Amino acid sequence: MNRRTGKSLTRPHPPTHQASRRSSTLIADGDCIFRAGLAVELGRREGFGEVYETGSGKEIRKLTKIWKPTRLLIDVALRGLDFRGFVRSMMSDCPDLRLVALFPPDEDARRLAQEAIQLGARGIVDKSLRSDDLLRALDRLVLGASAPRRLEAAAGPSPISDGERLSRLSRRERQIFELVADGWTTRAIAESLGITPRTVEVHRHNVVAKLEVPNTASLIKLAIRTGVTRI
């Protein structure tokens, strides 16, 4: 049975694999595209169990008590959260929690993520990693019995061409991609296309998965490279 908070900013993703139901993963990240795409991908992989997500630093303490995740992937820059204090508290209260700090390609954010390791975090992962590299890093950190304490790398070029990735999108997904790249919000897209915000979110999830982009910045870069949008 899915547990719900009644808030649109949190959303459970049912597990794909029967054997994973005893575990659960909470993704706490303010980037809705990155968060949604990661939730979809982890929901398809063994070992992560039920996957929940939130973009609210103010809600995360309450949500961890409600959902009791065994794994927590948290952005060091999550708004409304004292990151150091939260990690210290969580690792003290839940020493078996596998907490991974996610950080954007910024030196200050990297240093903050590294502090989390000293506080007991499982490791850190650079959010600018290419999608498949990011997932492999999380597999090793979150699921591995003897995972390294730190995994980070520079993003590399995808072996799949931009044109090939764009060709995967349906006509509606292409519309959503173009509007998101132009900075439209979910609500604005829904009103413009005459569909519900929930339907927009479903399309956004599919766009993220098909384009293999790890975050909003990468999606916009892809749109610029392919001429879909301009700076």
Descriptive overview:
This protein has two domains: 18-143, 3-Layer(aba) Sandwich (Rossmann fold); 162-225, Winged helix-like DNA-binding domain superfamily/Winged helix DNA-binding domain (Arc Repressor Mutant, subunit A), CATH 1.10.10.10. Helix content is 46%, strand content 11%. The chain has helices at residues 32-43, 60-67, 83-93, 107-118, 131-143, 162-167, 171-181, 186-193, 197-211, 216-225, and strands at residues 24-28, 50-54, 71-75, 98-103, 123-126. The longest helix has 15 residues, at 197-211.
* Name of the CATH class of the largest domain: Alpha Beta
- Output mean pLDDT: 80
CATH fold-type name of the largest domain:
Rossmann fold
Q: How large is the share of residues in beta strands?
A: 5-15%
CATH architecture of the largest domain: 3-Layer(aba) Sandwich
Helix content: 40-55%
How is the largest sheet built, in terms of strand order? 2-1-3-4-5
The rounded distance between the terminal residues' Cα atoms is: 45 Å
Number of domains: 2
- Total strand segments: 5
**Structural class by secondary-structure content:** alpha/beta
Largest sheet: 5 strands, parallel
Low-confidence stretches: 1-11, 14-21, 145-158
Individual helix count? 10
CATH superfamily of the largest domain: Response regulator
**Which overall shape is indicated by the principal axes computed on the Cα atoms?**
globular
Determine Rg (CA atoms, Å).
17 Å
| SSE order | EHEHEHEHEHHHHHH
